[in-house]
Amino acid sequence: MASKKEQLGIMGGTFNPIHHGHLITARAAKEALNLDRLLLLPNARSPLRMEEALADPQQRLEMVRLAVAGEPGLEACDLEVRREGASFLVETLRDLQLQYPDADLTFLMGVDSLETFDRWREVAQIVKLARVKVMPRPGGSGSEALDALEKRAPVLAGKLELMAAGPHIELSATEVRNRVRAERSIRYLVPDAVADYIYLNKIF
Ligand code: ATP
Fold first, then answer.
1. Between vectors from CA 162 to CA 32 and to CA 114, what angle results, nearest 5°?
2. CA of 27 to the centre of ligand 1 (A)
3. How far is CA 66 from CA 30, 98, 117, 170, 190, in A?
4. For the chain: N or C, fewer Cβ within 10 A?
């Protein structure tokens, strides 16, 4: 009997910082898609968000590591942080394909990424290298945003799949950063180890 190919998921983001919205949706997606492993991939820098003040990439990666420590099947991936400079998903997927030649790759992104996806480098290649799944997020299923994207970029028509409604967690890294700056508690919003790391290193 042919052995089943490894199902490898990748969830990219700035993770500035990682929070329970990411973690709950990551685990739900891993289960819904029967992924063997899900890599959480912090960007060194998003080319489309260059103006944003970001915590140091190594620190964002370390927070991802702390958040997934001991959680089977969820792993931090350092490929983009190690590469430095602007992060291009197409390059990362090519690296992953070399590293895991026998795996099927699935890239997960939130509905908000549909607004910019057509401007990512070599999108036509991205959807060849990986299955792309769009995770729901409070504020909409994403179907309108997906229609609009396919009109702007016909090459993507039928290539992205919306995931069935999963958990809707109304939480963003922006809210976490704003609360840290306002000296309000971030307990329950991020794992305790991540909160401790933020305070110890005076991030944000
Ligand atoms: P920011 O507030 O800084 O824009 P963010 O909370 O949206 O950050 P990102 O690191 O940009 O976090 O997100 C990484 C990925 O996780 C994106 O695809 C995003 O859509 C998704 N994501 C973030 N927060 C949630 C959430 N609460 N529910 C579902 N998906 C989420």
1. 130
2. 14
3. 19, 27, 29, 22, 11
4. N
**Any domain includes 189:** no
Task: At 173, list the tokens.
Answer: 């890294």
- Is any ligand 1 atom within 6 A of the Cβ of residue 21? yes
Classify residue 67: in a domain, yes or no.
yes
4: tokens are: 């089943």
**Structure confidence by residue, pLDDT tens digits, 103-129:** 999 999 988 899 999 999 999 999 999
Residue closest via CA to ligand 1's atom 27 equals 21
β partners of residue 190: 187
13 CB within 6 A, ligand 1? yes
Q: What is the pLDDT of residues 1-57, one digit of tens each?
A: 556 899 999 999 999 999 999 999 999 999 999 999 999 999 987 666 666 678 999
Q: Are 133 and 25 in contact (CB under 8 A)?
A: no
Residue 184 within a domain? no
What is the whole-number distance in angstroms between the Cα of residue 14 and the centre of ligand 1?
A: 8
Which domain CATH number covers 45? 3.40.50.620
142 belongs to a structural domain: yes
Q: Is the CB of 59 under 6 A from ligand 1?
A: no
User: Distance between CA 143 and CA 147 in Å, rounded?
Assistant: 6
59: domain range? 6-168
Closest CA to 88 of 50, 115, 122, 58: 122
